[in-house]
Please model this.
Amino acid sequence: MPPPPLSTFSLILLLFLLSSTTISQSQDTDPESDCTDKWIHIRHLPPQFNVDLLKNCSEYPLFDNFCPYLSNHGLGQKTHNSSHSWYRTDPFMLELVFHRRMLEYPCLTSDPNQANAIYLPYYGGIDSLKYLYGPEVNSSILHGLDLYQYLVHQDSPNIWNKNFGHDHFLVMARPAWDLIQPLSADPPIFGTSFLELPEFYNVTVLTFEARAYPWQERAIPYPTSFHPPNLAFFESWVNRLRRTRRTSLMLFAGGGGISANPNVRRSIRLECENSTSMSVNGTRYTKLCDFVDCSNGVCEHDPLRVMKPMLQATFCLQPPGDTPTRRSTFDGILAGCIPVFFEDLSSKMQYQWHLPEEKYEEFSVFIPKEEVVYKGLRVLDVLMSIPRAEVRRMREKVLDMMPRVMYRKHESSLGLRSKKDAIDIAIEGTLQRIKSRLEDIA
Model:
């Protein structure tokens, strides 16, 4: 039986929390914090561009009913009642999560003229559903035009016209590939044309996965299910990862690979099926390769299904699928599992703010997929050749990188806020990006 739509009370509460124009600082915020070059103005948008979009959470029959994942300001329901840090988070709710966290940002200003950046709390990924799966599927070239008309013609046009959108940014909880349908596509193909609209070329857009060339896109991590509220819960989890005994050399959690056509997922599954237990560099592994079948989305909202085997694995394989990037990359890092990448579009060319390119060799392994698929290179052979001391160093580096890809809970403790998380780093990167852009066009 599908979950019921949001109650009237829930919608009123969301409307109050997310559409309020009142700006206030958290009681934990240091009043002496330096906001030079960090001021952000949250632009007021009518609820049709954010909260009203949540009312249709059960109306997309080809897309998962996302009503259950709206609770806790987009973090979803707790995995169990006594949980403090773990939620059944749907990554596509990031727009809601980001908006809620922006209300806690310590350098908010009600004066757009004072701001170094303008945040648009537009739930563009959720809005895209009516074009991707809903009744307006043949009108996808219109996605975003009503927002543009509002910004430029209806609500204080001087805010937009000051820099013609160069100082504006927003979050789109979709891969960029879902938003780049050519304006001339006839008949329309899957996706909307939001990122193809000249009207938004100047706006910084934060997506799960960015293309390599357009200026306006920047990739930020997929949310996982781990959202600790304070430093004690975070450090407890890290200590558990350090104590955990890894009984599998490598793990692949995902689907695909069942086609007879050559591809890296097929090669990995064949290796896993033919692997046995053995000792590697003095470590006895119960399994050389563990496989968790996540076909048909069965792992998406069940953290235990993937986190338990990830906790037991030394390496987590991250082959590309429908698109190059995967949420599993960040699940694995949160489990202290060393990521193994097979193409640069999955890693180095994506999350450069959060996972700097020069650090990849310190915390991950790279194996070209062409070597695996067409030249017979065994992933197991590569991983078994890595010295034990090097594996320990890589895992420690993974643990060091954890906070950078984690989305901590809103209203978290001041102690945990001292560790910059994925949203903190995204905001910093966006501010610097906008500053550089404005300097270039000055």
About this structure: The first strand starts at residue 40 and ends at 42. Residues 1-5, 19-32 have pLDDT under 50 and may be disordered. DSSP finds 16 helices and twelve strands in the chain.
